[in-house]
Amino acid sequence: MPTMADVARSAGVSVATVSHVLNGTRPVLPHTRQAVLDAVDALGYTPNGLARALVTSRTRSIGLAVSVIGNPYFTEIVHGVEAAALEAGYSLLIADPHDDPEHERKVVRLLHERRVDGMIVAPSASAHHLVSYLHRHAVPTVFLDRVVTETDAPVHGAPRFDQVCAESAEPTARLVTHLAGLGHRRIGLVAGMPGLSTTSERIAGYRQGLAAAGLAYDDGLLVSGNSGSAGAERATAALLALPNVPTALVTANNAMTIGALRALRRQHLSVPDDIALCCFDDFPWADLFSPRLTAIAQPSREIGTQAVRILLDRLAEPDRAARTLRLPCAFVHRTSCGCPEQPARAAGTAREPGAEARTEPSTLSEKGPVS
Length: 371
What we know:
This protein is α/β, with parallel strands linked by helices. It has helices at residues 4-11, 15-23, 30-43, 49-56, 73-87, 101-113, 128-136, 169-181, 197-212, 229-240, 254-266, 300-316; strands spanning 61-65, 91-95, 118-121, 141-144, 162-166, 187-191, 222-224, 248-251, 276-280, 294-297, 323-327, 330-332, 358-361. Strands 2-1-3-4-5-11-13 form a seven-stranded mixed β-sheet, with helices on both faces. A six-stranded mixed β-sheet has the order 7-6-8-9-10-12, with helices on both faces. Helix 5 links the parallel strand 1 and strand 2 (91-95). Helix 1 crosses helix 2 (15-23) and helix 1 packs across helix 3. It is elongated.
């Protein structure tokens, strides 16, 4: 098996120069770098990752903690993280916190003990202890999908964590105003798990949409599906048991959309003839339902990609200001809202004109909270 010394002899350079090229620890002249890389290819040299980690104090690995098993939405995010990490030469260690704060702390600690260079985490509904651990051990971390608020910060100071998520409030408001524009006056919301930032933001968007449409907020039309199919089925059944049932529903994630549809089927109600339905989270089979589901499509893969890029920026520049990146969503207009079939969009037009990612200071940065 060829060694680093063999590469150095073949390239006509020192072993130290080969190390600098492979580990990126010092700038090397372009022609020298190319000679080393050519020698690596010709000899079939494979760097010793453990030895490199001892020299650089870096393992070139990223820990990813997301509840991918219980939440299919995260699957595309994981694909984005994996592709971006591999492109940058990083391996990926994945753990599933199951959206349970206690389990979350365990898997994050285990990832940290594996000496990952940084972490990407979709925090649970109660992230105080998680944030405290990451801050105490100075673990470079990017939170994705769900932002962490000041209430989750440890009392000894605000940690500087970057965050990547999709817009939630405005897209939810758009679903509500769309339904109101079709004549609906009683619009129910099946909301997510209490304590998640996505839940509170989508509830805020729901109320904004009602206000924009001139509709009064009715507390009885807001129910919690606890972010899951079973919870949403029970919540939808409760809405359908009201003396004055809603004529339209908004579900706040894809799993809850399935639960709502099950509840409607049990009541022998047809969408959209008996009740209109719009959902937050598009998913691959939404287009196969009859009727086809009108939905908000999140840029899931892009969220994962951007999380890796921001984490790499943090590793390269540990003292840079923390930031929160919010990515725009797309309104996917189909027929479950009660509208007639829309003409097919031309390729590449999923994102609405003028929609751009919005970057702002991190919720937990020194620059203050997300607006």
